[in-house]
Structure formats: structure tokens, C-alpha cells
């Protein structure tokens, strides 16, 4: 069991948007990732810990592709929404400053895709000195191999990998 202090922890939901969630994903379906992420968001908000939803916009295009908004239930569960224009959530978004203003020291990550948006954001977060926790069953990749590489090889070097059921705020 991993117990986190809600006063200094934030949940970061990466790219839970229609056009991304609808892709064929592995090892977890997009709908499973959304459901797990929303359950975590509910627990975080009940404990007074902030929830940040991140979505991507393609730079340099007049109009974003259909499905580029956060899922409505994800946006409703978030205290803050950050728009990124790179793979990771920190470059040019103000995310670090937002987290610092709230006294956040620990980030819990969920989202899609494990080895792209989640991992890129986590690497930048590590560079900023955050403690990192990765919820394996609340993230997924374009392939199971890509997901497993991040979860089994990279994330343990950056932080702690947990199952949603093993995460506790208190």
C-alpha cells in the first residue's frame, strides 16, 4: 500500500480525449483507463488533493481534429486543465508554476499513452524534483510492448509503479 499526503500530492490525467481514448490500445482499453482515472480523481478531490487534466493541441493548425477536447466527465473531475502543444505536459504550459503555487511535491500519473505523453511528462517532472507515482492500471499504450517497456523499465527508475487499489490518501 502506498499512502500519500493529499496536502502535497496532485493527480495528473494525461490526454483523456475522445480521439485518443477511442484508439485501439493495450494492455488496457481506453474506457478502462478513463474509469480508473475518474475513480482516482473522485478520491483525490474528496481528500482535498488537486486533479489536473492535460490535453494536447496540435501546434500550427487552424482547427484541431474532431475529438480534441477532454472527455466531459474528465474535465468535470479536474480542478485545473492544462493545454500542451508538445508530447510532455510541462513545456510552455505553466504546469510547474501551477503545482508549485499549490504546494505540490508528489505527482500521481494516469493517462494515454504510457510511453508518450505520460512518460514525457514524468521525465520533465523528475527534472523539476517531484516525487512520482505511476498508476499502471490507469494508463495504457498504443501497444502492450510499449506500455510494458515504460512501466517495467523506465518508470521504476523515476518513481514508484502501483495499482490503483494500492494507492491511498491520508
User: Which regions are unreliable across 5 or more consecutive residues at pLDDT < 50?
Assistant: none
Order of helices and strands: EEHHEHEHEHEHEE
Outline, from the CA principal axes?
Answer: globular
The portion of residues forming beta strands comes to: 25-35%
Oligomer: single chain
Strand segment tally = 8
Would you write up a description of this structure?
The protein is α/β, with parallel strands linked by helices and about 170 residues long. Helix content is about 35%, strand content about 25%. It contains six helices and eight strands. It has helices at about 20, 30-45, 70-75, 95-100, 115-125, 145-160; strands spanning about 1-5, 10-15, 50-55, 80-85, 105-110, 130-140, 160, 165-170. The strands form two sheets. The chain has a six-stranded parallel β-sheet with strand order 4-3-2-5-6-7. It has a two-stranded parallel sheet with strand order 1-8. Helix 6 links the parallel strand 6 (about 130-140) and strand 7 (about 160). Helix 5 (about 115-125) packs parallel to helix 6 (about 145-160). The longest helix is centred in the N-terminal third of the chain and has 17 residues, at about 30-45. The protein is globular and about 45 Å long. The mean pLDDT is about 95.
